[in-house]
Amino acid sequence: MTKHSAKRRVLRKQRRLRKHAPRGTPPGTMHADPNAPATSIRIIAFDSERLAEKEIADPEELRDWIGKWGTIWIDVTGLGSIDKIRSLGEVLGLHPLAMEDVVNVHQRAKVDVYRDYLFITSRMIDDCDAMQSEQLSFFLFHGVLLSFQERPGDCWEPVRQRLRTHRGKLRMTASDYLFYALLDSVIDSYFPVMEMLSDHVDLVEEKIERGEAQTPIHEIHRLRGHLLMIRKSIRPHREMINELIRNDSGLISPETRIFFRDCYDHVIQLIEMVDTYRDLTADLRDFYMSAVNHRMNEVMKFLTIMSTIFIPLSFVASVYGMNFEYMPELSWQLGYPFALSIMTTMSIGMLFVFWRRGWIGHRDQAFHDAESR
Amino acid sequence: MTKHSAKRRVLRKQRRLRKHAPRGTPPGTMHADPNAPATSIRIIAFDSERLAEKEIADPEELRDWIGKWGTIWIDVTGLGSIDKIRSLGEVLGLHPLAMEDVVNVHQRAKVDVYRDYLFITSRMIDDCDAMQSEQLSFFLFHGVLLSFQERPGDCWEPVRQRLRTHRGKLRMTASDYLFYALLDSVIDSYFPVMEMLSDHVDLVEEKIERGEAQTPIHEIHRLRGHLLMIRKSIRPHREMINELIRNDSGLISPETRIFFRDCYDHVIQLIEMVDTYRDLTADLRDFYMSAVNHRMNEVMKFLTIMSTIFIPLSFVASVYGMNFEYMPELSWQLGYPFALSIMTTMSIGMLFVFWRRGWIGHRDQAFHDAESR
Amino acid sequence: MTKHSAKRRVLRKQRRLRKHAPRGTPPGTMHADPNAPATSIRIIAFDSERLAEKEIADPEELRDWIGKWGTIWIDVTGLGSIDKIRSLGEVLGLHPLAMEDVVNVHQRAKVDVYRDYLFITSRMIDDCDAMQSEQLSFFLFHGVLLSFQERPGDCWEPVRQRLRTHRGKLRMTASDYLFYALLDSVIDSYFPVMEMLSDHVDLVEEKIERGEAQTPIHEIHRLRGHLLMIRKSIRPHREMINELIRNDSGLISPETRIFFRDCYDHVIQLIEMVDTYRDLTADLRDFYMSAVNHRMNEVMKFLTIMSTIFIPLSFVASVYGMNFEYMPELSWQLGYPFALSIMTTMSIGMLFVFWRRGWIGHRDQAFHDAESR
Amino acid sequence: MTKHSAKRRVLRKQRRLRKHAPRGTPPGTMHADPNAPATSIRIIAFDSERLAEKEIADPEELRDWIGKWGTIWIDVTGLGSIDKIRSLGEVLGLHPLAMEDVVNVHQRAKVDVYRDYLFITSRMIDDCDAMQSEQLSFFLFHGVLLSFQERPGDCWEPVRQRLRTHRGKLRMTASDYLFYALLDSVIDSYFPVMEMLSDHVDLVEEKIERGEAQTPIHEIHRLRGHLLMIRKSIRPHREMINELIRNDSGLISPETRIFFRDCYDHVIQLIEMVDTYRDLTADLRDFYMSAVNHRMNEVMKFLTIMSTIFIPLSFVASVYGMNFEYMPELSWQLGYPFALSIMTTMSIGMLFVFWRRGWIGHRDQAFHDAESR
Amino acid sequence: MTKHSAKRRVLRKQRRLRKHAPRGTPPGTMHADPNAPATSIRIIAFDSERLAEKEIADPEELRDWIGKWGTIWIDVTGLGSIDKIRSLGEVLGLHPLAMEDVVNVHQRAKVDVYRDYLFITSRMIDDCDAMQSEQLSFFLFHGVLLSFQERPGDCWEPVRQRLRTHRGKLRMTASDYLFYALLDSVIDSYFPVMEMLSDHVDLVEEKIERGEAQTPIHEIHRLRGHLLMIRKSIRPHREMINELIRNDSGLISPETRIFFRDCYDHVIQLIEMVDTYRDLTADLRDFYMSAVNHRMNEVMKFLTIMSTIFIPLSFVASVYGMNFEYMPELSWQLGYPFALSIMTTMSIGMLFVFWRRGWIGHRDQAFHDAESR
User: Fold this and answer.
1) What are phi and psi of A293, to 5 degrees?
2) Closest to D312 measured CA to CA, from E308, C322, C344, A310
3) Contact predicate A155/B23, CB 8 Å
4) What is the distance of C-alpha E337 from the center of its chain?
5) Number of helices and strands (H, E) in chain B?
6) With an 8 Å Cβ cutoff, are B302 and A319 in contact?
7) Chain D from 176 to 215: CB within 8 A of any C CB
8) What are the residues facing B305 on neighbouring strands?
9) Residue E48 banded pLDDT, cuts 50, 70, 90
10) Which residues face B56 on adjacent strands?
11) What is the mean pLDDT of chain B?
12) Which stretches within C211-334 are classed as H helix?
């Protein structure tokens, strides 16, 4: 656990450094996180017949592309270079508030409707192990999709492959379907994480049932924390996709709407899974604590029975161990058997009391051995 | 319990193998579960006068049937043969997203409205013991009902019998009523499961009251898990049937709507039963833990009383068991009675303290015996 | 408690026998419970001037009555004779689904709107002690009210008396007001039950405060079970009466609507009472467990203080009880006082440690006696 | 606490006597509580220029007043004289159902709309200490306000003073504003009660933090009960005032509506306070129980350490206290030092084991003393 | 902790002094808190070309300003001088109910719509450490913004700077955007507080994991109290801002509405953070208590094992320590070895029993040492 804890401690420290923007700054101001990776801009432009990919350094180059292709996907990775991002915003005419939300990576999933475009934020689980989530931002225009990722490495490689190989219906369609394909990949990337967690819950449950769990409480606590984090990430997507479906800006075609409905179903499914697992882990914790308590009670009952039987016996023995000169029993011929028989009577009486109260024998399996000993 | 646990462990392993589709695949792609049973297609075609049943191998044969019968029920069992299912989808013109949901058996109950048909998914409790649920999918056309089951074995045999024997109003009516009859069977199949669980809860409660429960915590935990699973299955049906009732596609006639309303009542009743039993089992667990705690306290009080009475007595005895040469009491004529009377005084004083604090005697039944001993 | 438990066990067994209808039967099929009492049909027909009462054996007789009286109340008791009930349904033209719900006595309170009549189900608490609830079903026509009870014995005798004695406005009004009068009696019959439970809760609380409670946990658990059962019965009435108020079928006149609004207020009041008592009993259980825990801690602290004071003392005594030939202290003139003074010092030191940690003395009342002893 | 408990017991007995109306009585029947104080009727009639006050004995006298003054406030105190109240109802033409609700003092706050008037019930906290609530009923006509109180003594004296002294805008306005002024006083009378409770919660928290709390569990339990009772009283006011604001009967003028909105804010504020304090007291109870548990653990650990160190030592000592004739160690020259060194070794070993497990020393502050002892 | 507690005790006392207005006063009456700081009024008037700042003593001076500037911000600090505030209200024609809410500093965030202006209240976290919140009130007119603060010291200095330096779009815009800028600062001032709390939660979690936490229960309790307080402050802002966005009074321009939408997102984000942290701390408390319980069980098991092994051994030893004259074993040649072998047998038997029950050895890591000792 120490290795795991160490990793988490590092992440916590990072989180503490990457704070919210200083208060009092005018709205629409962008603050770069000094640790953010440098920004790279990659264009994939295509229509049903041709496809071009290019990495551009200066956002001004974009002006040469727009309007000349069916669909242009501007894929921005890394939020470290504020100037590049700002210039990109100017080229495409983006609202400062939206630009601020792009670099302030603490947004919930949401849709903001502007006149010419939709601004959408989403969250992706980045690293299954470290349970780190990453903000994704999209600007959806007619014919242009602009996406921002916090870090290199994403779940969109298969989408790019499908574009290049002309596989699926992706190439024939407009920017809204491309956006759907990307969002769908993001939502689908939650499933393996949930499955990993569900396997983990199963494992812990199995271990507790077999009595082999070493630190189930730590594990359950960590699982619950992960579930909380996933819930916080995924839940706003419900509302977000719902708004996309009902949106009447004309940016999303009726055909694509059917696909978003499918996406919506997946989000609901994920939310229900998370809620079910929150309930399950709560049950599991209660179950474990009850089991522990039960075993504890067995232990205590055993101690009580042993102690209360032997304490009076030892007392009798120590009485006859006193060194008084005038103790008549000591010189009796049958003093020793007499003392032993007192002790036997006492222990039988005590066992009878225990039996009457149901602490040993018929009612509880746990003390059969103790009794028959 | 080990037998039961073994069964669950096998199921868990199966679940772990049957994963969600690999991420990054284009939407609408079907992934066969390699362990799924092979697909068999069975047609029951009927109108008020005639009825024909046939098992077909090639979905293309369907074209000979459609349009020639009042109602055709295409009953597909087993999702192992992706090609057959895909070809079926092409014959009937089904949307790829719906087809994907048919084979991806993790759907919640829902209705998706397409132009010519409704796509409905539902879940059935398969195996009462193993608490395994199975996905059912329906495509409802005018005059055609297409149903998919995961595995052979269902709760629809009585419906088939009623079709064959012309019993009930089933033969005279259209595909929407047939669909209602099937859905009603599915919903009704939850009741025996709920009754089994409710009997189990009663039994556990009775056992706890009689003090005979061996591992009530394990049983309650398992019952709660089952209830959670049933809730997850049944709850989405509420919304689903509600959408069927309000649906205005013309596929569901006003007469059948009354029947769906009845179905809706059953679902609400089931949901309330599950919620009530979740509450009841939570109460039961708290009750059991309280009872255990209470007994534990009795045990501890007994130990404390015994120990604190005898510990000072033993101390006095061991003092007079010391071997000092110059201990005046040892040579007193009345040394022994003197020591015994000290001990008696101490124990009476101690009992008085206990009585004053209400640990023995008047306030709590539990120690009457201890006192009168 | 055993008597009470025995009663409950019998009820549970009955419940287990009286199962849900076997699955797979066509909708609208009626299944008689073999233990249900035989059906008797009693007619009370009246208008503002005359009133007639008759027990009829054959539902066909009804045809002679209908249309000839202002209002006819057909009061059916006992659901054992399926044929009679079916024939009654045919005479009045009732929908099979509604008839099925009449005999399947597990319905929640609800309103189903049919063309000529309303079908309403409600639940009544039958036996305050056994906490058994009974289903009531009503068919409300213009001029005819048909009511079904599970068992003889009801809360409607006062209504019948008012009809016979012409007391109140009952005789002057139509079937909807009669239905209101019956439903009002049913709702009002919950109040004495709630009052009985509330008195019980008060009593248990008083007993716990006085420390006289013997098995409060059992009682609280039973009370919570009763409250859950009442909540399950009463809660659907809210929605049901709300639908009656908003119903625009013309069967319920605007004047009667005001009375249903009053009924609605009573239901809300009952639901709030049940919820408050659920919260109260949860608080009570927590309170009791906390009190038990607190007393337990006192007991344990006492044990610890006694043990840890005497254990070292006894050790010293047993050291000087060893029989070694060469133990210099034994032959000292002041060996005995020396040993005693070691013991005194140890116990004072120990008491000082306890006092420093706040286990005895100033901080906690509980050990004042122990210290000053 | 006994004094407090005694008071509560008396109240409970009263509550048990003052039951709900006997079941089966016709709706609209008034049942007098035999313990209710006698009814007195007091009229305050005013317009902007004149004001008259009179106590009347016979409700018929009212006919001389109505229509001759701008606003008439009929202030009825005590519900003991059913005849007077009934005659009052006849003079003003009140609906029997509303009259029944006036004397059946278990109503929740609500608004019932009748043709000529509004019927409003509200609840007031009567006695801060006893936590007794009183029902207030109002009939709001154009130009007439009829109010009923259960008992003499209210929070309206300042309103009467303002009427008499012409202070505030009260005299210039209609019956709706007078009603607002009264309702506002009622709502505001909850604030001192909440403040008293909040101070009590603060005090208990402070005491627990200082470790001075004697019976915090009893106090928290009582506070939670009070909060539940207040919540039950205040919560329905939200809906009630909301209905007053949206009411379009013309009885409430748009100018007064602004004032009701202010009243609504106060109710929301009260409900949030109650909910916050319910959460706070739950936290407080958990906190106290955790603290108790923690101290308990310390106590137990101390006992364990002391016992497990001395138990083996005592055993060694008692071995060499045996009286066998042939025990070689007894006659060794160094037998005594040998035994002592065995004991020392054992205790050092035991302390090492404890230290390794973190029960003493570095990890937990609690045992620093024990170690350094 | 004592320092911290002392600070809280002082705050509590202050809170107890600063009560709600005495009951019975007419609505719209202003009550000054005697401890409130004196009122100072500061005007910042500007349009896109010029800016003037002035501190005025007499509200009448305002008449010289209004209408002569694009936007006027009247910034009132301190609520001690009721006369000044009243006269300000008269100059601007404010409603008495709104004025009352300004000085009665217990309001929830809300919007009240009047004919010419909006009245808005909000709450700001004042002092991160003491968790004290301050009420802010705003009157938003066309061209005039009036703001009230309880105490000097706010989070608006950056806004003033931006006004003076002509930075941002602030100077070019109307009073609604100025109001947005101020409200945005208030909302943003919650983020550092939440981050401080989240860091604290992380720290406590880390400490508990490392076993270094001294009084985690106190810390968690305090954190939960802070979260409750923040939730109470922030939650009403959701509704408040929502009403601002939907408000159609023309006081808020469509361009500013986009900015309020951003503000709304921040509030939702804050509410979700608070809820998540409430859940997290509850989990943390359960986790800690479980960990404590688990360690306690280990301790108890150790005690039980040690005691039950040595108790019978000591008994045997004390039996042979009795001083009877006729005890045959004492004079046996092999009596001593005989006694020792009895003891060895007993302890081996006892260890076997423990092992069989799984208290030592294979099942639980915790007792490996104990066993191998």
Assistant:
1) -60, -40
2) E308
3) yes
4) 70
5) 11, 7
6) no
7) 211-212, 214
8) none
9) confident
10) B41
11) 82
12) 216-246, 254-319, 328-331
Q: Three-state SS for C128?
A: coil
> Shortest CB distance from C299 goes to which of B191, B269, B304?
B304
Closest-CA residue of chain D to C201: D12
Spatial strand order in the sheet of E71-77: E51-56, E40-46, E71-77, E144-149, E132-140, E118-127, E110-113
CB contact burial C72-104 (16+ within 10 A = b; e otherwise): bbbbbbbbbbbebbbebbebbebbbbbbbbbbb
Q: Are A76 and A146 in contact (CB under 8 A)?
A: yes
Q: Chain D contact for E368, CB < 8 A?
A: no
Rg, chain A, Cα only: 35
Q: Work out the angle at residue E332's Cα, subtended by the Cα atoms of residues E331 and E335, and round it to the nearest 5 degrees.
A: 105
| pLDDT reading at C212 higher than 60 | yes
Average pLDDT of span E73-99: 91
Closest CA to D306 of D356, D352, D347: D347
**ipTM for the whole predicted complex goes beyond 0.90:** no
CA nearest D127: which of D193, D28, D200, D185? D193
Contact A353 B333 (CB under 8 A): no
Nearest CB partner across the interface for E326, out of A101, A322, A333: A333
Distances (CA, A) of E110 to A79, E101, E118, E226, E255: 37, 11, 10, 22, 22
* CB D103 within 8 Å of CB D31: yes
- Whether A283 sits inside 8 A of B95 (CB atoms) is no
**Which pLDDT band, with edges at 50, 70 and 90, does C13 fall under?**
low
> What is the distance between the alpha carbons of residues B225 and B214, in angstroms, rounded to a whole number?
19
The b/e string for A27-48 (b: 16+ C-beta within 10 A; e otherwise) is bbebeebeebeebbbebbbbee
Q: Please report the pLDDT score of residue E25 as a whole number.
A: 66
Please report how the helices D254-319 and D216-246 are oriented relative to each other, as an axis angle in degrees rounded to 10: 160
Q: pLDDT means per 10 residues in chain D (373 residues)?
A: 54 52 64 81 89 90 88 92 91 90 87 91 76 88 93 84 78 86 91 86 82 74 88 91 88 88 90 89 84 78 83 85 81 84 88 80 39 30
The pairing of beta strand B51-56 with beta strand B132-140: unpaired
Please give the single-letter amino acid code of residue C38.
A
Q: Which helix (H) or strand (E) holds B157?
A: helix B157-165
Tokens matching residue E370: 């104990």
For residue D117, what pLDDT is reported? Answer: 93
Phi-psi region of E142 (alpha: psi -120 to 50; beta: other; left: phi over 0): beta
The secondary structure element, H or E, covering residue A141 is none
Task: Specify the residue for token string 């016709």.
Answer: D26
CB contact under 8 Å between D300 and C304, yes or no, is: yes
Q: Which helix (H) or strand (E) holds A336?
A: helix A335-356
If one counts every other C-beta atom within 10 angstroms of the C-beta of residue B268, the result is 18
* pLDDT per position as a tens digit, B57-88: 888 989 989 888 889 999 999 988 889 999 99
H/E element, C193: helix C190-210
